[in-house]
Specification:
Length: about 140
């Protein structure tokens, strides 16, 4: 794990493989960092949106989750660079998301609801810009 935290992206900021590699290294996401370093050209840039589909600042304040944006960033990194088709890796990312929400002060019901939302709506089948493995470039046929 890198000792110095790289600057966190702001909501609306574009993330590239180099920036994601630095963040994954800092957070100790070794497998993701290795995956990115091995094939940085396999990934497209993406825009960090905080906790997808939520008004982050308001939601964080109302539900007492002061580090919501950083928790969402960690989850987004796992989703962006997750291995396509690897449902076990996705499941672990979702469980870690729920655990971090709880550790940051979220009520159990809120954390469970947010877990359920990402677990179901983050499925690769949806093919949205927040779905599992979303930063992987699609192979052209």
């Amino acid at each position: 794990m890198s000792s110095e935290q790289p600057p966190l992206p702001k909501i609306g900021e574009t993330m590239n493989a180099e920036r994601a590699y630095a963040l994954c290294s800092y957070y100790g996401f070794t497998n993701l960092a290795k995956r990115i370093a091995a094939h940085p050209d396999h990934y497209h840039d993406w825009v960090f949106d905080g906790a997808s589909m939520l008004p982050d600042a308001l939601f964080a304040k109302v539900f007492h989750i002061p580090n919501l944006v950083e928790i969402a960033l960690k989850h987004d990194l796992k989703y962006a660079y997750g291995e396509p088709g690897n449902s076990e890796e996705k499941h672990h990312a979702d469980l870690a998301f729920e655990a971090e929400l709880l550790a940051d002060g979220a009520d159990k019901a809120v954390a469970k609801l947010m877990y359920s939302a990402v677990h179901v709506l983050g499925g690769e089948w949806l093919k949205a810009d927040f779905s599992w493995a979303f930063a992987h470039k699609k192979e052209s046929k």
